[in-house]
UniProtKB/TrEMBL annotation:
CDD domains (alphabetical): LbH_SAT
Name of the featured protein: serine O-acetyltransferase
Coiled coil: none
Species of the source: Zestomonas carbonaria
Catalytic activity: L-serine + acetyl-CoA = O-acetyl-L-serine + CoA
GO cellular component: cytoplasm
Gene3D superfamilies documented for this protein: Hexapeptide repeat proteins (2.160.10.10), serine acetyltransferase, domain 1 (1.10.3130.10)
Subcellular location: Cytoplasm
Record-linked Pfam families: Hexapep (PF00132)
Entry-linked PANTHER family: SERINE ACETYLTRANSFERASE (PTHR42811)
Length: 259
């Protein structure tokens, strides 16, 4: 038990630069008090002492301003910063190393019994005031922006902002890898053409590369289908693009071709 308490305190130091010492964390962090009281309430709930569990949970709400239903399943090193106004529903599930800020709701959108609240996988961060509503999964490491309203599944690693929540960062480097692959295929240097480039021209080129990738995939598929039908139409190699081919264009633009 003390081990768990110690790691709870450590998780505050990792995630709140304002934390000064263990005594202060132990006594002045309502998020921690709410988590500890929830562990007690959840245990009582599991034993079938449901009224007592609700009573403990209600006491915790009165003390901390954080309402966690005793049925909610919460992993290790869960950190609630500030806390006031948080509501976590009965069937919510929270993985390890999850962080919530004040005003977050992990709620349901229906009155049906059964799973109706979200599941937050490991390492998810939910910003102040965000509402995550419904029985879907928020993938590991995803970030929900402050005041976002999220009602659909969020892929691992994605960042979601706004109402309704929209993804602003792809979950992994898959998109980037695809762009790089297609850029290399066409002899184009895609250096710096990434999703988070603020340059609109670079973004447009990125979109073109994505489109080229889709077209390329489709052509590959058609070629395989033709081959399966006995055609050798796709046996011919595509002509390679060479730098010299662009020399005239570069000259016309007053630019010297690369040596
Ligand atoms: C969503 C969040 C995690 C994104 O952080 P990030 O990955 O560093 O992203 P950026 O700050 O570079 O922002 C990326 C884009 O999203 C926008 N954005 C960021 N947070 C947003 C939010 N909550 N709502 C709407 N748009 C948001 C930015 O304006 C930016 O838009 P642009 O590309 O058009 O300029 C962060 O902004 C956030 O909301 N964190 C919660 C923090 C919190 O609640 N703190 C409370 C402390 S008391």
């Amino acid at each position: 038990m003390f081990e768990r308490v110690r790691e709870d305190i450590q998780s505050v130091f990792h995630r709140d630069p304002a934390a000064r010492n263990a005594f202060e964390v132990l006594t002045c962090y309502p998020g921690l008090h709410a988590v500890w009281l929830h562990r007690l309430a959840h245990g009582l709930w599991g034993f079938g002492w449901k009224w007592l569990a609700r009573l403990v949970s209600n006491f915790s709400r009165w003390l901390t301003g954080i309402e966690i239903h005793p049925g909610a399943k919460i992993g290790r090193r869960f950190f609630i910063d500030h806390g006031m106004g948080i509501v976590i529903g009965e069937t919510a599930e929270i993985g390890n190393d999850v962080t919530l800020y004040q005003g977050v709701t992990l709620g349901g959108t229906s009155w049906n019994k059964g799973k109706r609240h979200p599941t937050l996988d490991d390492g998810v961060v939910v910003g102040a005031g965000a509402k995550v509503l419904g029985p879907f999964i928020v993938g590991a490491g995803a970030k929900i922006g402050s005041n976002a309203v999220v009602t659909k599944e969020v892929p691992p690693g994605a960042t979601v902002v706004g109402i309704p929540g929209r993804i602003i960062v792809k979950s992994d480097d898959e998109q980037e890898a695809k762009r790089q692959a297609i850029a290399e295929k066409f002899g184009f240097d895609a250096y710096g053409v990434s999703q988070d480039m603020p340059d609109p021209v670079a973004r447009a080129i990125g979109q073109l590369l994505d489109h080229l990738h889709s077209v390329d995939d489709r052509l590959e598929g058609m070629c395989s289908a033709l081959k399966a039908l006995g055609s050798d139409y796709c046996a011919k190699e595509l002509p390679a693009l060479r730098d010299e081919d662009f020399a005239e264009v570069k000259d016309a633009a007053g630019d010297k071709p690369a040596a």
